[in-house]
Amino acid sequence: MSVTKLSNRIDQIFQEKKNNILSIYYTAGFPRRDDTVHIAEYLENAGVDLIEIGMPFSDPLADGPTIQHSGQKALQQGMTLKLLFEQLAHVRQTVNIPVILMGYMNPVLQFGVENFCRHCQQVGIDALILPDLPMQEYLKEYKDIFEAYGLYNIFMITPQTSEARIRLIDEHSHGFIYMVSSASITGAKSEIRPEQVAYFERVRKMQLKNPTLIGFGISNHDTFSTACTYANGALIGSAFIKVLEQSKDLEKDIQQYITAVRGR
Amino acid sequence: MAAVKELKKTSYQVNENGYYGKFGGAYIPEMLYPNIEELRENYLQIMQDPSFQAAFHQLLKDYVGRPTPLYFANRLSEKFGAKIYLKREDLCHTGAHKVNNTIGQILLARQLNKKFIIAETGAGQHGVATATVCALMGMECKVFMGALDMERQKPNVERMRILGAEVIPAVSGNQTLKDATNEAMRYWINYPVDSHYIIGSVVGPHPYPDMVARFQSVVSAEIRQQLLEQTGTEQPDYVIACVGGGSNAAGAYYHFLDEPDVKLIAAEAAGHGITSGESAATTALGRIGILHGSKTLLMQTDDGQVVEPYSISAGLDYPGIGPLHAHLYDTGRATFYSITDDEAMDAGILLSRLEGIIPAIESAHALGALHYMDLKPEDVVVISLSGRGDKDLETYIKWGKY
């Protein structure tokens, strides 16, 4: 196990704050191709704790229609990984909170895994979420490269993940664990049901060494607060993409949405 | 009836991590991990159980109509100057080899106590084969099909509905096979406990490629036995099959993989030609990549976005190939030819005229490869005639050159 670097912005966030951590996902190059950095700035100003930027992919297996559509539109608008790194070249001049890149393995593979990690480090990315990179492959092929460039790999757990596997994931995790709220793709549900609460409770009782954030189906103040009762915070994706889709004034609408989710 | 023999471990078999050389694996989100793990832990044990084998082979015999004939094609042989045999998978119930796999997987799904079945389909052949076995077993069936493909393949949509399946249009992406596969996997993520996903080809995360290849391997098991009876030797010089995802090829090659004297020939769909921008020739145009849970050769942009393939044959327009075939290509074990729409259609008409058999356009690609081969009169050539042409009548009519 490598030495945990306290320089990672994610660790700093969780040291400063134990509750009500809000992470927001949005797709790079959406709604307009060059909105990527502005949205990050508006999110930080609105008081968001972490940002996940989605790397669009033609075949996003784990995503529901909202995120699929945003990715497809971004690709149509000419979004590529190369362009994303160009957009993010100076993001650290204006954005201080942790930035995570989230996406599928194939574009990363074509970019070259080490080249990708080097670019991530250069622009100031803190972690990666790659849903179709299984843990065993990560440990065997990618862990050393990710760590060499100071990148955390965020793992997911679901209601079907066994206790033994959750322990294993906890052992290999840095930053936080992404608790998928139900058996679903992104954006599927709009409320939190009793069987989900039972699963949240079960995981909480395991007293994992890593913080947990709950994602999938979190959309508003109610679901965010419920999630925060059982975990260190929550992640919002599809609901935020819908805000972006309808927005005429990104800065104002992002501020309003985040304030509403926080319930202030 | 030839029993499916357990093979020696060879370099062409999947390894314990689910790889064929550098291809394969299980690149799936954590949401699917329990499903895939359940399959991986159980599939070999279930499949090798004598009572399972007995039930499988009984259905293949009485319901599918196996063994399918190995037919010596006299006039075709004369035309190409070799001894050409056709493995008549077109005579299977539902009209193609696809049903070998759906029979196997639905029996396996029952062993795993699954309540309902999901499947993807492109042209509709695998969807029909799945809907058929679901009717046979009284299981609920949902088939995902690209909305565009539903337009293009209306008769098969109705066949599935007649059989009691629900056909769900995939409206994401380009609304074809690739997107139907995405939708089926998304549905599986949403209903992970009670559903079994019957993948139709040797694609997807491990153990699917190996499992489907094993169910289809009945084809090469029969070829061996039938060749022995007809020629006195079990080994042909060539086995030719078309490759989209590659399930009929995997079945036709399976028991010859470890016998280097048997040359394996794969026919890919070149569409309008490999440089035309409208093609499905994955080995000619693809690079290593990850799609639908498997690391394999994949048609894609420099940025790693998957490219929409094209072929006149709806069963061959998949942007990847099964990891076994990527490995056979990479190691040179199989020789790949790119067959254009025109070449395939000509070959389909040729077979119709010489032998009185109208082949599926997929299978016509395999016949198209004959023109590129340097055959000797004593060569024994087996062609996998994977499906019949009934479903393609409209395409033949539109083609018109007959």
Model description:
The complex is a heterodimer of chains A (264) and B (402). Chain A has helices at residues 9-16, 36-45, 65-76, 81-87, 105-111, 113-123, 135-148, 163-172, 194-205, 221-230, 238-246, 250-262; strands at residues 21-27, 50-54, 99-102, 127-129, 152-153, 156-157, 177-180, 212-215, 233-236. Chain A is of the alpha/beta class. Chain A has a single domain, classed as Alpha-Beta Barrel (TIM Barrel), CATH 3.20.20.70. In chain A, strand 4, helix 7 (135-148) and strand 5 form a beta-alpha-beta unit. Chain B is of the alpha/beta class. Chain B folds into 2 domains: 27-62 and 98-212, Rossmann fold (3-Layer(aba) Sandwich), CATH 3.40.50; 65-95 and 217-399, Rossmann fold (3-Layer(aba) Sandwich), CATH 3.40.50. Chain B is 42% helix and 18% strand. Chain B has helices at residues 33-48, 50-64, 74-80, 98-111, 125-137, 147-152, 154-162, 177-190, 208-216, 218-231, 247-253, 282-285, 323-331, 341-355, 361-368, 393-399; strands at residues 19-20, 23-24, 70-72, 83-88, 116-121, 140-146, 166-170, 195-198, 238-242, 263-271, 287-291, 294-298, 334-340, 380-385. In chain B, the strands form 4 sheets. Chain B has a 6-stranded mixed sheet with strand order 3-4-14-9-10-13, sandwiched between helices. Chain B has a 4-stranded parallel sheet with strand order 7-6-5-8, with helices on both faces. In chain B, helix 4 crosses helix 5 and helix 4 crosses helix 9. The radius of gyration of chain B is 19 Å and the shape is globular. Chain A binds chain B through residues 57-62, 64-65, 68, 72, 75, 80-82, 104-111, 131-134, 136-137, 155-158, 160-162, 165, 180, 183-185, 188, and chain B through 17, 25-31, 33-34, 172-173, 178-179, 182, 185-186, 189-193, 287-293, 298, 300, 302-306.
